[in-house]
Amino acid sequence: MVSTHIGFPTETVIVFVVLAIGAIFIDLFMHRADKPITLKNAIFWSIFWVAIAMAFAGFLYIHHGSEVASLFVTGYALEKVLSVDNLFVMMAIFSWFAVPDRFRHRVLYWGIIGAIIFRGIFVAIGTGLLSLGPYVEIIFALVVAWTAVMMLRSGDDSDEIEDYSQHLAYRLVKRFFPIWPKITGHAFLLTQKEVDAELAKPENKDVTIGRGKKAALYATPLMLCVAVVELSDVMFAFDSVPAIIAVSREPLIVYSAMMFAILGLRTLYFVLEALKQYLVYLEKAVIVLLFFIAVKLGLNATDHIWHHGFSISASTSLFVVLGVLALGIIASVLFPEKDKSEDEKHS
Question: Roughly what angle, to the nearest 10 degrees, separates helices 66-97 and 265-275?
Answer without folding.
Answer: 60
